[in-house]
Amino acid sequence: xxxxxxxxxxxxxxxxxxxTAVPVAERIVLEEGxxxxxxxxxxxxxxxxxxxxxxxxGDLDAVLRAVIEKSALMLSxxxxxxxxxxxxxxxxxxxxxxxxxxxxxxAEPQRWWLLFEYNSNNPPDDKAQEFQLxxxxxxxxxxxxxxxxxxxxxxxxxxxxxxxxxxxxxxRPTIIALNPEVARTYIAELVDTxxxxxxxx
Length: 201
Known about the structure:
This protein is mainly α.
């Protein structure tokens, strides 16, 4: 068996910077917004030089991507927990997922914005694509579809898009808002319409 080569002191220092910087950057972004995050401030808050920060991450975008990855993990865990009960039928699982999706957006608006609105004009990176595909596959399976079927993936992608649009109207402050509790009442209707219009059988 090949033994792993121990990390050098430099590598340990860089790993420590990454571990320390991400939660601090997360706090800044969630409390003050993306524009409040800059390399000089972050380096000062964790008591390292700007050069050391860049050595650890490459650039500030990499720090922000790490914050976004934490938000993605939180949403994924939230949605998986919502449908853990095996006794739920397919319709109920889909409605439960939609409601959990809405609840996350209401409870964590800044994380929601980071995941689905921030930098939305640029193509998603590999990890973002993997995250989104994972959510789609979970949705397909919850509704009794086959994640390997292109047709089923498209059907549930349309359903996701409709629920996402509803949640966006309920949570995005730049649009005349739809009351979140009113939005919740429409989730079941969207699920029923989707299942009726695009039967999986």
